[in-house]
Specification:
The complex is a heterodimer. In chain A, helix 3 crosses helix 4 and helix 8 packs across helix 9. By secondary structure, chain A is of the alpha/beta class. In chain A, the strands form 2 sheets. Chain A has a two-stranded parallel sheet with strand order 1-4. Chain A has a two-stranded parallel sheet with strand order 2-3. Chain A has 2 domains: 32 residues, no CATH class; 143 residues, Nitrile hydratase alpha /Thiocyanate hydrolase gamma (Nitrile Hydratase, Chain A, Alpha-Beta Complex), CATH 3.90.330.10. In chain A, 43% of the residues lie in helices and 11% in strands. Chain B is mainly beta. Chain B has a single domain, classed as SH3 type barrels. Helix content of chain B is 8%, strand content 34%. Chain B is built from 2 helices and 5 strands, in the order E-E-H-E-H-E-E. Chain B has a 5-stranded antiparallel β-sheet with strand order 4-3-2-1-5. The radius of gyration of chain B is 14 Å and the shape is globular. The chains are: A alpha/beta, B mainly beta.
Chain lengths: 210, 99
């Protein structure tokens, strides 16, 4: 018999475990409130902007990766100018300066932003929480192989691990290696193998074997 | 950008990141200051973020490079093979030609 449930009358559920607002949450609420009151933008415009951001997802980046896997000329253009290549296949990247970095038999690429949390949101959507964590940001540059191992990604010592720190105006998308056994696959099917984590570089693309 | 500082470096040049700690908003990571690497590419010229952060125009624009460093040159205790590298975006005014 449990300590608390040796009775049979209904009772109120436990209260939500909401914590107090942090300093920056209060600041954000105050600034948002000022900007809407001063009609710099409306609450509806802000909501729509959030909606547009939430609508972006790693499938967009996957589309670019799949095209690069099937079309060597497109891949060459993507490595030359990622933004132009994305626009070429109808991906809206805005002012984003995209650099596509290719994993090869000799190089494995990993992306981080040590200074904040720069991320190719136009192609991958919102970054995962770990990407913004201080632990990832500090360790990805200093011990990338240990970080990769924690993601289950073992890179042999004869492959160079190349970290990209997005410190300024560029955003990075990793072009993972095409999984074996996917010859002749349609682009849509290939795109599903290019996971978010593989385009950040903490993992390789999903296997083509079911 | 027409109002831009001319680019001083080309891919392959060896450069050293200035060892400087001015106050303000900086986008040159501490861990790279004083380190030497090789220019990987010129990314273009961009308004200086150190000025933009204070709502100033940041012009003339600064050339921005991607500089490739050997991990072993950045961390004394780097745990990984010699071939591992890191590439960092650094503005020209933080770079000097390496001897």
């Amino acid at each position: 018999m449990s300590i608390h449930h040796d009775h049979d009358h209904p009772h109120a559920p436990p209260p939500d475990a909401d914590t107090d607002l942090s300093y920056y949450q209060v600041l954000e609420l105050a600034v948002t409130s000022l900007l809407t009151q001063k009609q710099v933008f409306s609450a509806d415009e802000m909501r729509r902007q959030i909606e547009a951001m939430d609508a972006r997802h790693p499938g967009l980046g996957g589309k670019l990766v799949a095209r690069a896997w099937v079309d060597p000329a497109f891949k060459a253009r993507a490595l030359q100018d990622g933004s132009a290549a994305a626009r070429e296949i109808g991906l809206e990247v805005g002012p984003l300066k995209l650099i596509v970095v290719e994993n090869t038999p000799d190089v494995h690429n990993l992306v981080v932003c040590t200074l904040c949390s720069c991320y190719p949101r136009m192609l991958l959507g919102l970054p995962p929480d770990w990407y913004k964590s201080r632990a990832y940001r500090s360790r990805a540059v200093r011990e990338p192989r240990a970080v990769l191992r924690e993601f289950g990604t073992e890179i042999p010592d004869d492959i160079e691990v190349r970290v990209h720190d997005s410190t300024a105006d560029m955003r990075y998308l990793v072009l993972p290696r095409r999984p074996a056994g996917t010859d002749g696959w349609a682009e849509d099917r290939l795109a599903a193998l290019a996971t978010r984590d593989s385009m950040v570089g903490v993992a390789v693309a999903r296997s083509g074997q079911s | 950008m027409s109002d831009a500082v001319p680019a001083r470096f080309v891919p392959g040049d060896r450069v050293t990141v200035r060892r400087s700690c001015p106050p303000g908003h900086l986008r040159t990571p501490f861990y790279a200051r004083g380190a030497s690497g090789v220019i990987e590419r010129l990314c273009g010229a961009f308004a200086n973020p150190e000025e933009l952060a204070f709502n100033r125009p940041g012009l003339p624009a600064q050339p921005l490079y991607r500089v490739r460093f050997r991990q072993a040159d950045l961390w004394d205790d780097y745990q990984g093979p010699e071939r591992d590298t890191i590439e960092i975006e650094i503005y020209q005014h933080w770079l000097e030609a390496a001897p």
